[in-house]
Amino acid sequence: MPHTDSNITAQIEAFTRQLVAAVETAAAQRIQAALAGALGVPQKRGPGRPSKQVTATAPLALASAPARKKQLCPVPGCKNLAAPVFGMVCKEHRKVPKAKIKKYREERRQAAPSTGAKPVAATRVKRVTAKVKRARKLQGQYLGLLKSLTGADRAKVKQIAKDKSVAEAVKLARSLKK
Fold first, then answer.
1. For the chain, percent helix, then strand, then coil, each to nearest 5?
2. pLDDT in tens, 124-142
3. Would residue 120 count as lying in a domain?
4. Residue 71 to residue 85: CA distance in whole angstroms
5. φ, ψ for residue 31, nearest 5 deg
6. Is 160 in contact with 168 (CB distance < 8 Å)?
7. Number of domains the chain contains
8. Cα separation of 168 and 150, whole Å?
9. pLDDT, tens only, 82-128
10. What is the pLDDT of residues 10-57, one digit of tens each?
11. Most confident option among 38-42, 63-67, 171-175
């Protein structure tokens, strides 16, 4: 019987040594994490979700992140913050028609100083004359008919277009196609 007591005692002592070692390493890791967080040293991370020790230093990292700009209510004279719930206006002005809100935003944009970007110039729509329309249509017909021709016929049509006119070349191409 005394033999088993010594085995149990040895096992208990081995277990307590392992337990003490585990507690000491955990405490050392916590101290290192706290010091690294206080000094701003990034911590090493493994794959997966960060441990709770890392989240303990997370407020320090968030404090250095730039703050998001709050959007004010677009109604003139209103100093309240806009809420996404009410369509980016404050609670007081949530019943204001959207058309008015749009007008207020446009006025504010026009009154705001330029950020250096040049405004986009309106593109002018060029009117196409009847003469240009006819020329384009004829050119399309010419190219379409030229695709259907091969070899010597094609060369003949190109030569007529060069020497006389595209209209004459289209007439010739149509006759050769049949």
1. 60, 0, 35
2. 888 889 999 999 999 999 9
3. no
4. 13
5. -65, -45
6. yes
7. 3
8. 18
9. 877 767 888 888 888 989 888 988 888 888 766 666 666 677 888 88
10. 889 999 999 999 999 999 988 888 887 778 776 666 677 766 664 444
11. 171-175
Q: What is the DSSP letter of 64?
A: T
Residue 11 lies in a domain: yes
- Residue tagged 């997966």 (tokens): 48
CA distances 166 to 71, 80, 142, 152, 177, Å, are: 63, 70, 7, 18, 16
- Tokens coding 146: 């030229």
Structure token digits, residue 73 = 């209510």
Q: What is the DSSP letter of 51?
A: P
**Beta partners for 164?**
none
CB atoms within 10 A of CB 178: 4
Parent domain of 95: 69-110
- Rounded to whole angstroms, what are the CA distances from 28 to 6, 23, 33, 35, 155? 33, 9, 9, 11, 90
